[in-house]
Amino acid sequence: MNTDKTPSNLYARAEVSPPSGSLFPHDHILGIWEMDPTTIKFILDTADDYAEANREPKHAKDKNTIGKCAGLTQINLFFENSTRTLMSFEIAGKRLGMDTISMSTGTSSIKKGETLLDTAATLNAMRPDVLVMRHGDSGAVKLLSEKMDCAVINAGDGRNEHPTQAFLDALTIRRRKGKIHGQTIVISGDIAHSRVARSNIYLLNAMGARVRLVAPPTLLPKDVKELGVEVFTDMNEGLKGADVVMMLRLQQERMKGAFLPSLREYYQFWGLTREKLEIANDDVLVMHPGPMNRGVEIASDVADDLDRSAIEEQVEMGVAVRMACLDILTRTIRGEALS
């Protein structure tokens, strides 16, 4: 059932900084909400170059690209568990030549009672050049960015945003489909608890895609009608004519109460199977930000279908996107122009 046919590109956007002659008029990367299409394209183009450089043999890598941030310090501060995002940022920083330090809450003074602002003051005194932060509370990364002298990258805050995931998803779509504009892109699963979905909605709408959300009513956000998307609670209806299907993980750790009758029933109605995928376009692209719950959100034979699945490529593009973000945010202190 299609419950909303609001055309895309009609959602209210944050007030964007006036043209400044720079392609990137931001001190931090906190969310897609504050970015215009020109800035998004600049990041994707830069990441595309890094994706190609990363595929070069080690001896042939462009020395003007790889290792260009040597001498700078990057701190990764993760208040939530993470494997792929943390490793992706670590590899990106090291590949650029940065001194990279990673901290988790298990090893930080937060466990000893220190407040977030005390932690910010302590880290700021150590003079890092970039701080990458993940936190369970929406807005926590923005709060910390206001207390830091260095650039801050949001690696996921609560249900708010996960901007680098949206960039890597968009880069994967652009490389596989040739464009984002005009593509019909289905985002399906636990949208209510997903910062990935929110960042992707902002980015894909800004770049002219047609965005559909597919989920049971209990897993849709309360403000869904304000997001400029089409909403479906019937997956078979939502998949008709889809160019891309982006599945999301069920975030049961964020669920308080009965959101689902059972995992078996969820898979029956909203899990992506080969049979359901036949409803979409023949060249449909399947994506998942991971980690996947096989047999819950997606069938294994769909996830592992090399002709349709871009899940491994998403991981690869993650490193390229994070290299681009680290590069762009440090150009000013390296004396390079943002163009």
Topology:
Blueprint: E1 2-5, H1 37-54, E2 73-78, H2 84-95, E3 99-104, H3 116-125, E4 130-135, H4 140-145, E5 151-157, H5 163-177, E6 184-188, H6 195-206, E7 210-214, E8 230-232, H7 235-238, E9 244-247, H8 263-270, H9 274-277, E10 285-287, H10 300-303, H11 311-330
Parallel strand pairs: 2-3, 2-4, 4-5, 6-7, 6-9, 7-8, 9-10
Antiparallel strand pairs: 1-8
Helix pairs in contact: 1-5, 1-11, 2-11, 5-6, 5-11
Structural class: alpha/beta
Main sheet overview: 6 strands, mixed
Give the number of helices: 11
Uncertain ranges: 1-10
Strand content: 5-15%
Give the overall average pLDDT.
88
What share of residues is helical?
25-40%
**Structure summary, number of beta strands:** 10
Q: Measured on Cα atoms, how large is the radius of gyration?
A: 20 Å
What's the shape?
globular
Biggest sheet: strands side by side, in what order? Answer: 1-8-7-6-9-10
Distance between the termini: 46 Å
Order of helices and strands: EHEHEHEHEHEHEEHEHHEHH
Verbal overview:
With 339 residues, the protein is α/β, with parallel strands linked by helices. It is 33% helix and 14% strand. It has helices at residues 37-54, 84-95, 116-125, 140-145, 163-177, 195-206, 235-238, 263-270, 274-277, 300-303, 311-330; strands spanning 2-5, 73-78, 99-104, 130-135, 151-157, 184-188, 210-214, 230-232, 244-247, 285-287. Strands 1-8-7-6-9-10 form a six-stranded mixed beta sheet. β2, α2 and β3 (99-104) form a beta-alpha-beta unit. α1 (37-54) crosses α5 and α2 (84-95) packs across α11.
